[in-house]
Design goal:
The complex is a heterodimer. Helix content of chain A is 72%, strand content 0%. Chain A has seven helices and no strands. Chain A has helices spanning 9-13, 23-37, 47-68, 70-80, 95-110, 117-144, 148-180. Chain A is globular and about 60 Å long. Chain B is of the alpha+beta class. Chain B has four domains: 21-238 and 309-397, ATPase, nucleotide binding domain (Nucleotidyltransferase, domain 5), CATH 3.30.420.40; 239-308, Alpha-Beta Complex (Actin, Chain A, domain 4); 400-509, Substrate Binding Domain Of DNAk, Chain A, domain 1 (Sandwich); 516-613, Substrate Binding Domain Of Dnak, Chain:A, Domain 2 (Up-down Bundle). Chain B has 14 helices and 26 strands. In chain B, strands 1, 2, 3, 4, 10 and 11 form a six-stranded mixed sheet that branches. In chain B, strand 19 (402-406) and strand 20 form a beta hairpin. The chains are: A mainly alpha, B alpha+beta. At the A-B interface, helix 2, helix 3 and helix 7 of A face helix 8, strand 18, strand 21 and helix 11 of B. Bound molecules: adenosine-5'-diphosphate and magnesium ion. Magnesium ion is lined by residues 27, 186, 210, 342, 372 of chain B. Chain B: GO terms for molecular function: ATP binding; ATP hydrolysis activity; ATP-dependent protein folding chaperone; unfolded protein binding.
Amino acid sequence: MDLDFTRNYFELFGLPQQFRVDDAALMAAYRALQSELHPDRFAQSDDQARRLAVQGASHVNEAYATLKDDGRRARYLLSLKGTVVDEEKESAHDPQFLLDQMELREALEEVDQAADPLAALDALSRDIEMRYTQMLAAFEVAFESNNLEAARQEVLKLRFFDRLREEVARISERLEDQLLG
Amino acid sequence: MALLQISEPGMSPDPHLHRLAVGIDLGTTNSLVATVRNGVAETLPDEKGRHLMPSVVHYPDQGPPQVGQEARGYSALDPLNTLSSVKRLMGRGVSDLKTVAGHVPYDFVPGDGGVPRIRTRQGDVTPVEVSGEILKALRARAEASLGGELEGAVITVPAYFDDAQRQATKDAARLAGMNVYRLLNEPTAAAIAYGLDKGQEGVIAVFDLGGGTFDISILRLNKGVFEVLATGGDSALGGDDFDRAIAGWMMQEAGIEGDTGHHRMRQLMMDACAVKEALSEREEARLKVALSDSDYWSGCITCEQMNCLIDPLINKTLAACRRALRDAKVKPEDILDVVMVGGSTRVPRVRERVGEFFGRAPRVDIDPDKVVAVGAALQADILAGNKPGDEMLLLDVIPLSLGIETMGGLVEHIIPRNTTIPVSRAQEFTTFKDGQNAMALHVIQGERDLVDHNRSLARFTLSGIPSMVAGAARVRVTYQVDADGLLSVNAREMVSGVQSSIEVKPSYGLTDNEIETMLTDSRSHAQEDMLARRLREQQVEADRVLEALDSALGADSELLSQDELKDIRDAREQLAAAREGEDHEAIALAIKGLERASEDFVARRMDQSVRKAMSGHRVEEFE
Ligand SMILES: Nc1ncnc2c1ncn2[C@@H]1O[C@H](COP(=O)(O)OP(=O)(O)O)[C@@H](O)[C@H]1O
Ligand SMILES: [Mg+2]
C-alpha cells in the first residue's frame, strides 16, 4: 500500500480537521493503517520494501501520537492554518495566567511540608489538570471560531503546563520512593 | 534430507508452504526454543525430555564446546572454563566490566577499548560468541526434532535492553547461522502467549522477574493488536539478589566474616538459592553451613524470616511498576490481569506483594518458564508467513529515551522513552561559530539531564558545512528506530544539503548497574538536576551570546557609533560577570540586557549579510 506523505494527519486518518476527536475512530483508523504498513507484514519481503514499511509505519505512529494528545493536536491544528508559534522565543503574556503559574510552582515546591505530601500533591495535580482542561476549552472556542490569534495565545500556555506536569511526575516518583524506603 | 521428510498430519506436505520457524528465549539463567506444530505452540525438549537449557557453555580439553545441562555439571569442577550468565556482558565494553564482573568470576583478558574477551583453554572468547554457542545448541535441538533446516527465528530480549545489547544479540544469532526475523521484547512475547491462550481483551501487566533481571510492561490487547503502553524495569534485580540477601543472613548467623574466600562465597550462594527454592514449597527449611573441614553450623530459616530479607528488593520492583503505570497513564484498577513470568515469580511473597499492589491475584496458571518462548514461536510462525491473513499486530516501545548532546554537556531528548516504534523524529540544530564547517554529534541513551550520567551510544561528525555566519546553518538530525528497537541516525545541513549518517553500532552498551542507577538517579536527583540544568543552559547561552557578539564586533564594529559601542560593551561586561556566578536568573537577566543593547546592531548586520549574499542572484531565487 502506498502512503501519501503529503496528506495531513487528519486526512490520513479520515477525520474532520477540528479540535475534538473521536478517540474510537482515531484508534480504529490507526490500527487499520498499521495492519497494512507495519514492518512485520514485510518480514518475507526485500530490503527496499522493509525500509519503506519502517518509514510508513513511523509516519503513521507520529501522526497518531500527534492527534491523540490534546496539546500536540492543538499545536498541530494551528500549524496547519499557517500560524507560527515559536515557543522557544515567545511566551504567554497574560499577566493573570503568569501569576497563577507562579503560584502553582510555589505550591509544588511546598508539597513536601504538607502533613500528607502525596495527598497534597494529588490535590494540586487535580487543580492543574482542571486548569489545563479549561485552557484547552478556551483554545477550542477560539480555534473553531477562527480567532487564530486568541488560539495562539492559548497554545503559548501549553509549555507551562508541560513543565508543571513533568514536575508533578518527578515529585510523585520521589515521594513514592521515599515511602518505599 | 527432503526425501526422508515425512509430513505430519495437519502439516503442509509442501515445504514451501510451511517454513520451519522457532521462537527462542535466550535467558540469563535458562534458554528455551519453541515452535508451532499443528497449530499448537510448544517448547521443544532435548532427547532426555528436558525443556529448559541452562545458559551455560563449557570448553573442554578436547572436542567442541558443551552447552546446557552437561556444561553446568562443570561449574564447580572447572569454573574458569565453564561460562554462565554471559547475557549480563552482552553489548558491554571492557570499561563496563568493573560493574558486572562481580557477578561473573571469569578470567578476563586485560585490554582497554572494545569488547571484553574471556580466557578459556580453547582460546579467548567474547560474550557474543558464547551466546552464539547457546543458540547453535538450540538450533540443533530444533532441527533434530523438526527434521529440517530452520528458516528463521524470533529471539527475545529484555524490554530494557538498549541498542548495543540488542545489536550484540543479533550478532550472536549471525554467528549461529540463524536468520533473525525479529527481536522481540520478553514481556511482549509473554503477552502474546497469554492473549492468544486466554482470549482476553483489555489492559494487562506482565511482571517478569528472572535470575538477574526485572521487566514490567503494560499492554493493551484488542482484536489481535498488542499495544505496549509503557515498559520499565530494573536491570540489576532478580533471584540472584534474593540469594545474596539470604547468603548474607546465613553468614551473620553462622558468624562468618564478610571477606570469606571466593570458593566459600559461591557455595553459600548455591546453598541460599536451594533454601529459597525450598521455601516456595514449605514454611521452613534447614540449613547446614561448613565453617571448616570438620566444623558445621546448622540452623533453620522460616518463610517469614526470608520475606523480611527480600521485601526491600520486592519494593524496588513495585516502584518500577508504579512508574510504568504512570507512563502508561493507567491506574492499578484498570488492569485486567497481571501475568507472572520468570522463575522468581514462584516465590510466594512476590505473588502476595504484587497481588496487593495491583489489587487482584496475579495469574500464575501460565508456565512462567515457557511463556516467553511460546509467545516468540507464535510471532515467528506469523512472520514466516505460515498463517496468511493473520491479523496479529505488535506495537512496541523504546524503553529508554534517545537524545543528543547539546552545548554544556546537556542531553536534549529527541525520542522520549515509551514512544511507539518504529519511529522517526528530527530536530534542527545550528552552528555556534561564524564559518563553522563541521558539527560533532553525540548520540545518548538514558533519562538524566547531564550527558555523563547516561550511556553514550555513538559519536560522529557532519563535515563539509559551507562557511556561514553563526546560526545560519540548519543541521537536521533524524533518529530512526526500527521495529527491533535499533537506532540509525542521519544528519543533514539543509541549506547546502551536506549529509552524513550512521547505523548506531556501538562496541558496548549500558551496564545493568548503569541503567539501574540511571533510573533511580533520575528520580532522586530531579531537583538537583533541574537547578544544574538551568544554570548550565544559561551559561551555554551566555557563552553563545558573548562569542557571537565578539565575532560580530570584530567584523562589523564600523556599523556602530561610539556611544552605541560603549553601551554594548558595558552590557557585555555585566553578562561576563554574571556568567561566572551560580545564579541562573542573573545570567538570564544579563543576556536580556545585552540583547536589548545590541538589537540595532544585529539588525544592521543582518541587512548587510543578506545584501551580500543576494548580490549576483535574482531575488526570486530566495523565495
Ligand atoms: N521454585 C522456585 N522458587 C524460587 N525461585 C525460583 C524457583 N525456581 C526458579 N527460581 C529462580 O528463578 C531464577 C531463574 O529464572 P528464569 O526465569 O529461568 O531466569 P532468566 O530469565 O534470567 O534466565 C533463579 O534465580 C532461580 O533461583
Ligand atoms: Mg527470562
